[in-house]
Amino acid sequence: MAIIRRPPPPESVQAFEADRARPRRLPPSRQPAARSESLPAAPEAWPRYSVAAADLAQFRPLADAAVLESWSFFVSEGGALSVAEVGPASGSARVRRWSYGPINDEMLELAEGLPGSEALGGDNHELRILTVPALCLSALWLRNEGQGRSVVVPLAPTGGSLEPRRAYSEEDFVSILAPLAARRLARPDPT
């Protein structure tokens, strides 16, 4: 079993490198990671996908419903983890935002623990970030490169519907979230 990390498009790399070279004002609360030895020595880039509540409510498979929105570049800066979101995924790329929160640390920690995970079996999986904006949910999505099953590992907070850090089959993940997505769609938008 191998975790496949697809390289980002050259225009995304160029946008990241150009923005990284500019002086930025870092948040004062930014603290070095407790596990600074686990920070990436060189930037790592993972594709970030998003799935709409309407697609989940219809039980659409993630491979059909998820849309590549951007690339997340994980980088160590001064002993702390920073993540640059570069998008759009194709075309005129630019850095949308930098983030420094604990969810980034959790993503990196989870990804480090994946090789050898029993939930993945012996197949190759591509590492992806998956977001469900309507449900305020983020996860690691390990898309099977063959005929086997894909795995989704939600990050905290999950709203109680899913157990954080537990590996779910794609089918179970969609089945659990479909009724929640349908209820969300039935509520009027507060904005």
What does this structure look like?
It is a single chain. With 191 residues, the chain is an alpha+beta fold. It has one domain. The protein is built from 5 helices and 9 strands. Strands 1, 2, 3, 4, 5, 6, 7, 8 and 9 form a 9-stranded mixed β-sheet that branches. Strand 7 and strand 8 form a beta hairpin. It is globular.
Helix content: 25-40%
Tally of domains: 1
Largest sheet: 9 strands, mixed
Apparent shape? globular
Mean pLDDT: 84
Q: Strand percentage, roughly?
A: 25-35%
Radius of gyration, rounded? Answer: 17 Å
Give the secondary structure arrangement, pairings included.
Blueprint (H helix, E strand, L loop, with lengths): L2 E2 L5 H12 L22 E7 L2 H5 L4 H4 L1 E11 L2 E8 L6 E6 L2 H11 L12 E8 L4 E8 L6 E4 L13 E2 H17 L5
Brief digest:
This protein has 191 residues and is of the alpha+beta class. Helix content is 26%, strand content 29%. Strand 3 and strand 4 form a beta hairpin.
What descriptors fit this protein?
nine-stranded mixed β-sheet; alpha+beta
